[in-house]
Amino acid sequence: MKFVIRKVVLWPKKRALQPRVIDFEPGVVNVITGASQTGKSALIPIVDYCLGAGKCAIPVGTIREVVEWFGVLIETAQGQLLLARREPGSQQATDEMYMSEGVAIAVPPRILESNANRTFVKHYLDELAGLTSLDLIAGANSAYKGRPGFRDLAAFMFQPQNIVANPDVLFFKADTTEHKEKLKNVLPYALGVTTSDVLAKRYELDELRREHRSAVRELGNLRDGAQQWITQLRINLSRARELGLLPPESSIEVPEQQAITLLRSVVNRQDTTDDSKARTTPRPSVLTLAEEIVSLRHMEQEQSISLSQLRKRWIEMSKLREAAAAYSRALQVEEERLGISRWLFERSSPENQPCPICGNHLDAAHNHLAELISGLEEVEQGSASFRALPPSFDKEWAQVRAQIRDVTNLLTATQTRIAALQESSEQERRKRYTELSASRFVGSLEAGLIQYDRFVTDDSLKIKIEELSTRIAELAAEVDENALREKLKRVLLQVSVLNSQLLPRFDVEDPQDVASLSIAELTLKISRADRTDYLFEVGSGSNWLGYHLSLMIALHQYFLSLPSSAVPAFLMIDQPSQVYFPKKLAGRKTKNELDPKLNDDDAKRVRQLFVELARVTLAENKEKREFQLIVVDHAGKTVWGDIPGVHLVEEWRGSKKLVPMGWLDQPHSV
What we know:
alpha/beta
């Protein structure tokens, strides 16, 4: 895919200053050379950040402190695209982005606010690359097997300083499990083995297989259900006769087809009966009877309470009546006892007449008899005031008794009605239960007949299964996994051939040994005459560098040879010459040693590296396949200056650096 880096832009936090713009050329090896600590190794993180990286890997310090926005201007087949992203401050990253597209875009002097976000830019780049929206593995829930994204292709775009000569990690960001596992699934897609058409057919095949399994299960259920229903024919006949749906004299020992006919007649007759019932006056439901019983129960309770109150009152009045009679009798007895005293008193006299009973004189007892007569008079007065209860009491007592009789009759009538309704409710319930059982039985019978008829007479499901099987076989042949694996082997062989042609030119020991890419391990396998070694088992930094560069260029050559490829046709390489003077760089201690020089042998080897990079770039562009290389390196122009196809972008030495010195001498403006 045409994807040319035309500019890298830095907008300062000092709004009065102009942005820093670094221009690149298409179709050549663009070189930025310079001493250490000038910002060379920040270029790959800047471009990666502007292309939607999840985290900002731009080194903290001076660059992050003075730059407000980072940007990259890209040239594509549709025109130019400017992508800028705000410096994240104390965050790991920010989603604030600025995006502009057109035929030719001028770099704005400043960016005041964002007009896009990272998610939108990622989706835009996915569409620009023509990436499929389908998952790489149909039906997979793992993010490693999800749809390919433009961010996954960064593995082929960048070889930073910590990767370019790394024996353990071959691809950008493949040092993390997340990116490593995703890249294993993306590689066959990037290489054109699993195309969008193949993925679409995989999805269709997966859907058809699920549908086929469902149809087969449904047919199996129909078959099992029909067979089970046939085995229960005579049980169903017996049950139908028991529920009165068949005449009592019906025989259950009949042939299979005759039994089916009898049961079918039961279903049809029941349907007719249901229609007839729907036209008749409905009977009171069990619920209606229950509601009436509840109402009568309330009435019964009220009548019982009323009767209880009347009985209590009647009992109290009866007790009062008995008490009054007893009191009257007691007064009468008292009068009779005291009456003799009056008789004696009348016979006693001052003349001292003798007692008519004993003959003694009564003059001594005369005063005592007078006291008894006084008491007798008091008793007679009390007896006269309470000889009987008032007439109104007897009337009320009679009324209460009559009320008790009436309420008792009402309560008896209510209880009789409750008993009658309960009997009706129970009969109705039993009748309803019988009808419900019959309805359920007929419903189950009808469902069984439908299932039986569908299995015996309806071939639509069988035809559907046959059609699905045919389509599955066709798709399985088109996306034959064995064939795809063989195709992947052939593609990897082609890449290996391209790699083998480059190895002798990149200063690799034993370049005749076949170096092939292992997708399972994401590294190179070097096949020798008597053994096979992985890249991490090979020694020498120059070997690691040569294998890295040869493979990355071979992959891009293969991508460019495809009719269409989603992989951007550019590669950024950081510090490829580091393997030729690591000890000097590792041991530097003073500013005078920030720009060490290569010896003659190492300079020749570095020059040869640039010669090969330029040769490949020019060859691809000669074939009308635009390919761009961007190299940031310590080696100066004296090493590669006159090589055709190598373009000096800038040289950062002395006061010339990625961040202009003028950005550092004033406080940041708001």
